[in-house]
Amino acid sequence: MTAGCGTDTVSRLIRLGKKLSAELSTSVYDVHGVLTRVTTNSGDIADALAHFLRAFAVDATGASRDETPDIDIHLFAVETLEDSMSPAPEQAELLYNWGMLKIRHDGSCRYSRLDERAQVTADVEGCQAAGFTEMSLLESDWLVTNLFFYPLWAQLLKVKGLFPLHAAGLVREGRSILFLGRSGSGKSTLSISLVRSGFGLLSDDTVFLREKDDRVEALSFPEEINVREETIKLLPELSRVKNFTVNELRQKSSFSIEELYPGSIVHSSTPVVMAFPRIADRESTTSEPMSSTDALSQSLRYGFFFLDPSTTERHFYIMSLLARQTRCFHFNTGSEQDGLVRAVNQLMAGPEQDGVPSEEGK
């Protein structure tokens, strides 16, 4: 291991990766104005990320490809992960421990270690990252995109002013309701049900937040929607999906919402409601109001705060602003479709909150 984190740590790793690789490919993604360039020696990595970030791909002939990127990432597939590819020093502090994924920091460097098979090192000041993964990890696109690539990429996006939130975002007339919750809280089922009823979709799982004109704007991240077998049986329209992607690791299948509802993806919106869903064992859908203080406290667990102390203050400000500009509720999701849609419409048509006009006031 190397000692400490110098300014050339990531550059050294990039040079090491290039020495090991005969051919490299480069892709560029424009994520709401933040250009990310990804260079890799692996067709499997390139293909997985191209699918994951397909909504943000820059045309190969576009001028943006030649611009200096805001975020520059190099990812290399190797037969065996060696110590020289994993430079986290002994003094690096643990920020996050999710079993197979551990994240540490030292100075401006962030280190993610995945299942002892992959390592990514990121410099949050230079917004560069270099990662190495053993070939065996490439058997799962989800491991590549969500655990190898995403965690430190999300941190670099935060440096550039885009803050990820683990939430579904549904839109009507430019205004959105955000459902914040863990996996299994019903966000995907809610999303499908509301899109069926005419709502637009930012995402069923992750939205980006940024400040605009002293308010918080919610931005799309249109990943494929992940559903379990019981959800496929519950929602009749899912029987029409022809292109499910099966994720055996998570026991879920995914599909593009636009296969069923073309044009349903919305680019951006103004959040007016923040809700915390839980599945109710009854037909009717109900909600209970929350104070902005309680909502802020609960929302922090969904904002990826554990990863980057250098942006925590700014991130906390964005989340506080979101809690102040929205009406906040516990949301008990019932099984009856019409009642669910009616409950959401009632929440979105509520009284004015911090300068956000209600539907009745338009």
Q: What order do the strands of the largest sheet run in, or round the barrel if closed?
A: 1-2-3-8-7-6-5-4
General form: globular
Strand content: 25-35%
Quickly give the CATH architecture of the largest domain: 3-Layer(aba) Sandwich
Largest sheet: 8 strands, mixed
Radius of gyration: 21 Å
The helix tally amounts to: 9
- Poorly predicted regions are 355-362
Mean pLDDT: 88
Based on secondary structure, the structural category is: alpha+beta
CATH topology of the largest domain: Rossmann fold
Helix content: 25-40%
Number of strands: 19
Separation, N- and C-terminal Cα atoms:
61 Å
- CATH class of the largest domain, please? Alpha Beta
Oligomer: single chain
H and E string: HEEHEEEEEEHEEHEEEEHEEHEEHHEH
Total separate domains? 2
Characteristic key phrases:
five-stranded mixed beta barrel, disordered C terminus, 2 domains, 362 residues, 19 strands, 9 helices, alpha+beta, globular, Rossmann fold
Describe, in plain words, how this protein is organized in 3D.
This protein has 362 residues and is α+β, with helices and mostly antiparallel strands. It has two domains: 9-159, no CATH class; 163-356, Rossmann fold (3-Layer(aba) Sandwich), CATH 3.40.50. 27% of the residues lie in helices and 33% in strands. The chain contains nine helices and 19 strands. It has helices at 9-20, 43-52, 141-159, 187-196, 229-234, 257-260, 292-299, 309-325, 337-348; strands at 25-31, 34-40, 71-78, 93-98, 101-106, 109-114, 118-123, 128-134, 163-172, 175-180, 200-203, 206-212, 215-219, 225-227, 245-247, 252-255, 268-279, 286-290, 327-333. It has an eight-stranded mixed β-sheet, with helices on both faces. Helix 2 (43-52) crosses helix 3 (141-159) and helix 7 packs antiparallel against helix 8. The longest helix has 19 residues, at 141-159. It is globular, with a radius of gyration of 21 Å. The termini are far apart.
